[in-house]
């Protein structure tokens, strides 16, 4: 059976004080060794704090991006090795905000994915279409392009990794994809990967992201190809995030 995960993406939010309160509340509710992995991807300056509070707990941590470079004159970048040095397990790559605001191309995202793997991190590879692309009937074309860029390196690059389908029009907008829309996209992505390597595709957790809340999580997570969630806004509110994590555990599949 595929593993499931619920991962929080804090984006550009937090402070030492508010992080501590949030993480302590999560620690109260999330035990070690549950059937659904739980993690938070925090701004890089807070990786040490995440490690100090979460080490030995059932909650993992990681970064929201990673440099495609190992070291050198790349001002502002944070390497995979640096992220890993703080005990991180995960690194988000290709988030739509990195793609649109910071200009990460498919090529850059693939290089970041490889850099995360080299550092021993589990990349969370984000893909998704914009509203214009969906309305133009181009959803599958866009997902295929994004996935194929990665698959060019062989399907084994996805072994042990995670994919997150995040329709751009649903991120931070309060508009969630219907469970049917999510399932269709996830099945398409799994099929695309499966055409290269069925075993990798079957084992690959594909998370849904885009305005996941406690109120819609159970319906989304009940879909056969939805293996949990990547959660932005709701991951900043302990009760919401815990309820979403619990919904993944009780989804009947
Ligand atoms: C995200 O940042 O990955 C995300 C899905 O955000 P939100 O849950 O706020 O839509």
Quick summary:
By secondary structure, the protein is of the alpha/beta class.
Throw out a few tags for this protein.
single chain; 253 residues; alpha/beta; eight-stranded parallel barrel; 11 helices; 43% helix; globular; binds phosphoenolpyruvate
Give a verbal description of the structure:
The model has no long low-confidence stretch (mean pLDDT 97). This protein is an alpha/beta fold. An eight-stranded parallel beta barrel has the order 1-2-3-4-5-6-7-8, surrounded by six helices. The protein contains eleven helices and eight strands. The protein has helices at 16-29, 47-54, 80-85, 96-101, 106-118, 131-135, 139-151, 179-194, 198-203, 214-221, 238-250, and strands spanning 4-9, 36-41, 59-63, 90-93, 122-127, 162-165, 206-209, 228-231. Helix 1 runs parallel beside helix 11, helix 5 (106-118) packs across helix 7 (139-151) and helix 7 packs parallel to helix 8. It binds phosphoenolpyruvate. Phosphoenolpyruvate (PEP) binds at residues 9, 11, 166, 171-172, 209-212, 230-234.
